[in-house]
Amino acid sequence: xxxxxxMIAVRDRPTEVSMLLQSLAYQTYTDFDIFIRxxxxxxxxxxxxxxxxxxxxxxxxxFRIYFNRNEFGLGVSKNxxxxxxxxxxxxxxxxxxxxxxxxxxxxxxxxxxxxxxxGYDLASGVTPxxxxxxxxxxxxxxxxxNQVVLDNEGNYLFNGDDFGxxxxxxxxxxxxxxxxxxxxxxxxxxxxxYTPTKLSKHGxxxxxxxxFKCLMNGYKIGVDLGAIAWHQMTPSxxxxxxxxxxxxxxxxxxxxxxxxxxxxxLNKIFGRPKLTEQELMKDTNLARKx
Length: 290
What we know:
290 residues; alpha/beta; Spore Coat Polysaccharide Biosynthesis Protein SpsA, Chain A; nine-stranded mixed beta sheet; 8 helices; 30% helix; globular
């Protein structure tokens, strides 16, 4: 049995998910099975020639792939939970969730395994934009990734977003929440799940909810600044809906309400750093252009 289950929630992104699968075929860490769940996309993935070619390439390389398609769209969080249930056919040590519009560097999964070996329970990397990369950031200005600061009422004074860039070095840092893809101990789901959820079908903020629940249950999040999942930022398909701006605002509202409900627990975790918002967002963290 393989050590890790890689879970891919996909909807209407046949080219993008094929590029992701191709990057999985050439990972330096290979001890994994692949689970794909199509969230009732407009056209089934299996009708696309390029997807079928990459799917067969992976099988020829010895990877086991499990594919399922929902009868109707569940949305991002519920589809992720369905994938977690799918993986229970085997007893995996780790689960890895990878977005359907990223391309992984060959050492991505290997790096995340090493983060876990450093004592973290959930490991993630960075997702610089593939189509228009801009800056490499100086990691010396990021002590806690995606740092969160709340006031006594649970309002956000600061909500960091540090992982959409490349960095000057490959250090591992603690984080308050991760971005996009992650590898984590399967045992986390004994206490934490993606559902139930009040979030819309859009995926905005779902990983932040999952991160906070992990922290509240005593799990630690670590991010390797050298583990790169290139973000394709596809403008259509997947979690992109015609009314996505409304869905984003709705999910933001749900997150803020939930954070206020759990302000005491979260404030104990986040603490109250002396840094001001201006200091947390200082321009000196932008080191050089690509």
